Amino acid sequence: MKEIELSDPYITPYRGIYAICDSKNEYAEIIEHSNCYGGAAWSKFHYSHSPLIQNTRSIGNMVRYTVKTGTSALELKPSTAAAGIESVIVEGDEVHITYAGLGGGGVGATKCRAFAEGVLRCNYTESGGGRAAKGTIVVPRRERVLIGIDDTDTKEEGATWTLTHNMANALDCNESIYLSHSLVQLFPVSARTQNCVSTVLEFGCVDENAKQELLESVKAALLKYSVSDETGMVVLSDYDAKKINEYSTKCRSGELTKEYALQYAKDNGIDIWLDGNGIIGALASLAWFAQPDDSVKLKAQIE
Length: 303
Hints:
This is DUF1743 domain-containing protein. InterPro entries: Methan_mark_11, TiaS-like_TCKD. Strands 1, 2, 3, 4, 5, 6, 7, 8, 9, 10, 11, 12 and 13 form a 13-stranded mixed sheet that branches. By secondary structure, the chain is of the alpha+beta class. Helix 5 (about 245-250) packs across helix 7 (about 280-285). The protein folds into two domains: about 15-140, no CATH class; about 150-295, Alpha-Beta Plaits (2-Layer Sandwich). The chain has helices spanning about 35-45, 105-115, 160-170, 210-225, 245-250, 260-265, 280-285, 290-295; strands at about 15-20, 25-35, 55-60, 60-70, 70, 85-90, 95-100, 120-125, 130-150, 175-185, 195-205, 230-235, 270-275.
């Protein structure tokens, strides 16, 4: 028998909690990175009943809540709606998130989230047993930064998806959180290396300085490690990527020219960091951030 010692048997801290906001602070995406997906799945079900929640989905061990900012009264009910998000308030460069819950849901609403990485400060009530509990955490306000990359390999060596993930993982930090990685299946054109797949990386950056440092680092890593002379890197800093949907659909349905991609990027405010032929697929990938299960299907619909 192995005897275990637990410093606190009733706290399972989240790995991190992040808040991505739109330009007007009207909407936010609360992204919770869990150490226990079972508990996170329970929260996902119960939180989905909260009035502020617009949409809920999970990617790996991250649960994402699209919310309307503001405050709404919760009607907590055991077993069916036992926990929820009561308010999401943006104040300057900070986001205040208030959770509430009953019983074990109250433990999750307080200490488990309060002790997550990246939390600036918190306050909470006592929780556990049969009590109702409430907790507020304060996290940095972040903006979404999407990086589309394609054509880093040749027919002899390399793989774009592995290089991009390894770069992103190495650059992951509190100022620029690495949130997601999607492989995007493109129309199998004749000039492809093999499978005709591009990649989009998603980060949450706290400010412009963090974003610029991130992008410069990604570009430098591509120049260092790419084995192709045609690498493309494009960047979109926005809450969503709807402006790319039309282009992405065309790129996944047929062959496009580099000239068309360059003009589309210019017309839609997409920044070009590396202008090799890979920008054709890199630009198409932006529309598929945080949709890794669907982006690998050629006929999937963009959310």
